Amino acid sequence: MTSIVRAEGLVKRYDRTLAVAGLDLDIAEGEIFGLVGPNGAGKTTTLRILATLLEPTSGDAEIAGWSVRRNPNEVRRVLGFMPDAFGVYDDMRVWEYLDFFGRCYGLPAASRKRIIGDLLELVDLADKRDTYVQGLSRGMQQRLCLAHALVHDPKVLLLDEPASGLDPRARVELRELLRELRSLGKTIVISSHILPELEELCTSVAIVDRGRVLASGRVADIEQRLRVGAVLRARVLAEGEALEAARDWFAAQPDVAAAAILPDGIVELGFRGDEAGAAALLGTAVASGLAIASFSRAASDLEELFLQVTGQDEPVAVSA
Amino acid sequence: MTGATLRRRLPRLAMPGITAIGVKELRGRMRGKRAFVSVTVYVLLVAGFAWMVGRILEDTVRNNFAWDPTYSSASIGRGIFIALMFLQTLMISVLAPASTAGTISSEREKQTLDLLAVTPISSVAIVVGKLLSALTWVFVLILASIPVSALVFVYGGVAPDDVVRGYLMLLITAIGFGAMGTFFSALVRRSGAATGLTFVAVLVATVGLSFIWVFMRATSDGAFTKRPPEALFYLNPFVAQVDVACGAENNTGSWCYIIDEITGSGVNFIPQAQPAPAFDGGKGGVIVAPDGQAVAPGVGVRDFVAADVLAIQRDRYWPRSALTLLLLAVGFTTAAVQLVTPTRRWRPQLPGFLRRSRSPRGLRRGSLRVFGRGPGAAAQ
After folding, report:
1. Which of A16, A120, A136, A205 is most buried as measured by Cβ atoms within 10 A of its Cβ?
2. pLDDT reported for residue B259
């Protein structure tokens, strides 16, 4: 697949702070790409550089072949951007809001009308057409903001923390919307510090910390490369000593690094092997007479990855 | 961006951008009762003021010993016209900056400027579009007052071209001070601070510079030979209106003395006859000629009046003031465009000692923080 967003050696320095320190990105067309990192890792700065809102101190980035330094106007035409904190104009109706941005992109009047109708359908705001923008709920404003970024049918969408401040229902809706956009052929770049959210959605991620990409690629690939392994959870139908025996049995298996007992008869395993290895482990366990009610990967792999890669002691925020 | 690319892009992007911004801004400004009410209030105010000035002048003239219907009517007309121009200059000097000082800072406050900056419309279009639509509102006020000002034609004493001059100066005042407001709106983040700074700047441009002139004039040694530069008054639209008033008095009259004092361009004691109102006498007035002889009633006093008159060169001062205000507008607008451009090339650096004091202990952050995209704006 061809790459549509590329960044090479991006550096952004503010006075004495180095916000982005030589960041590289390579995002293929049609991906939903997650930029993960703790607060202050340089995610927003990176996205703002890609959106031509900031000039990099050094390095360059290309979007659909256009350089953000040399061809910012061309970049703006292929790009839709939704900042993390955005406002809405007072005194504007929903359709006027989209009409305004349609004019900004120089869309002719006839197609503007059709596009506004289509977009309002897409983001499920068709019945709010004549509502004043400030009267919309936060989730609706978020969807309207997303719609505004789509007015000119961009190839690439940059979304900075799109789910922050949304209730769970609105988040699910947003996720569905993003999947739909991907099926329409858009490349979507999302930044977030909420890991589970990205894990369900993203085809690839880059883990960013202190202005650098520490790891990037498909989640499974990163795992493979770092040989992080996975946390497996087996619910064993046993109690007391039988459960401890089961734990000891697991701990004795070759690819299992550690085993511990959790409440409800769950044995948690630190597993070094791949998925085939996990299947084999399950087979052996069943064959050796353990009554296993469930066997699955635990928690967020991305979260594990994240902690491993960034080497942080304190846990990363898992929800807003 | 090179000059060639700029030229190529400007027509392509500026016009649709200005239209887009203009449509959006005017939709907001002109929606509902607000626009209607503000225009109505403005016109009523101007009309009420004109009526009161008219009454005062009629009274004054009626009690004057040289009561003459033709001449008096003309002087009432001129008086109302001049008063209206001053009142409107005052109101425009307040309304124009007030309506532009929030245009860009409010986009920053509402966090909508980024949404605008990632569209292909240029910073020129953003700034000019906002300035023009804010000024459109002021222009509507100014234009709505024309019928009221036209009432002076009932009295006479003012030529249509005087009214054109006065209104031209009003429009230019709105452009100059409006651009000033836009600049401060782009410079500081908070609308409140931008408005405050704009009014300080307007005060400096009008009262401040004029006072410096007065000070220099009073303290200079050769008070009669050396005048401080008249340019100190160019940013003061009131003085330009004094020149317009002087023109309405056929360049001879009390307002002209002010312009003469400032510019020294008046010619005293012109020997040639100047057109002055004929005096038909017979109403109790006694005119004394220079030789002390009473002029017989019915004798024209044309030559007598002309002998002691001050004539100011017409259209010399106010066009300079207008040009200065327009240049100021261009300068401020250009600076505002620079400040709005997200990836601008030049960035004024604060001196080191000031930058250090921008820690929480030093300068209070936020209220007067210069530029939207400082380190704090996007540190993540």
Report:
1. A205
2. 86
Torsion of CA A279, A282, A284, A289, to 10 degrees: -160
Q: Mapping DSSP to helix (H, G, I), strand (E, B) and coil, where does residue A220 land?
A: helix
Q: Residue B1: which pLDDT band, with cuts at 50, 70 and 90?
A: very low
pLDDT for the residue numbered A109: 87
Which ipTM did the prediction report?
A: 0.73
Segment A106-125 mean pLDDT: 90
Task: Say if residues B118 and A76 touch (Cβ distance below 8 Å).
Answer: yes
User: CA A250 to CA A258: how far, in whole Å?
Assistant: 8
Helix (H, G, I), strand (E, B) or coil at B78: helix
d(CA B377, CA A54): 11
Whether residue B9 lies within 8 A of chain A, CB to CB, comes out as yes
Mean pLDDT of chain A: 84
* pLDDT at residue B37, rounded to an integer: 92
Nearest CA in chain B to A54: B343
H or E segment and range at residue A257: strand A256-262
Q: In the structure, what pLDDT confidence band is assigned to residue A226 with cuts at 50, 70 and 90?
A: low
pLDDT given at position A169? 83
- Grouping H, G, I as helix, E, B as strand and the rest as coil, residue A231 is strand
Flag whether pLDDT at A70 surpasses 80. Answer: yes
The CA-based dihedral angle spanning residues B119, B123, B128, B129, taken in that order and rounded to the nearest 10 degrees: 10
How does residue B237 score in pLDDT terms, banded at 50, 70 and 90? very high
Question: What does the angle CA A162 – CA A166 – CA A167 come to, to the nearest 5 degrees?
Answer: 145
Q: Does A19 touch chain B (CB under 8 A)?
A: yes
Residue A161: closest CA among A244, A38, A70: A38
How close is the nearest chain B Cα to the Cα of A255, in Å?
A: 40
A contact test, residue of B31, B114, B123 with most A CBs within 10 A: B114
| Helix B191-203, helix B69-100: angle, nearest 10 | 140
Instruction: Please list every residue in chain B whose beta carbon sits closer than 8 Å to the beta carbon of residue A72.
Output: 343
Closest CA to B75 of B63, B91, B88, B60: B60
pLDDT tens-digit readout, B154-183: 988 899 999 999 999 999 999 999 999 999
Contact at 8 Å (CB) between A266 and A176? no
Residues 36-95 (A) with a CB less than 8 A from some CB of B: 39-45, 48, 51-55, 72-73, 76-77, 79, 81, 83, 85-92
Domains of chain A (ranges, CATH numbers): 3-217 (3.40.50.300), 225-308 (3.30.70.100)
DSSP letters of A82-144?
Answer: E-SS----SS-BHHHHHHHHHHHTT--HHHHHHHHHHHHHHTT-GGGTTSBGGGS-HHHHHHH
Residue numbers in A near B112 (CB within 8 A): 86-89
pLDDT of residue B268: 53
Helix (H, G, I), strand (E, B) or coil at B155: helix
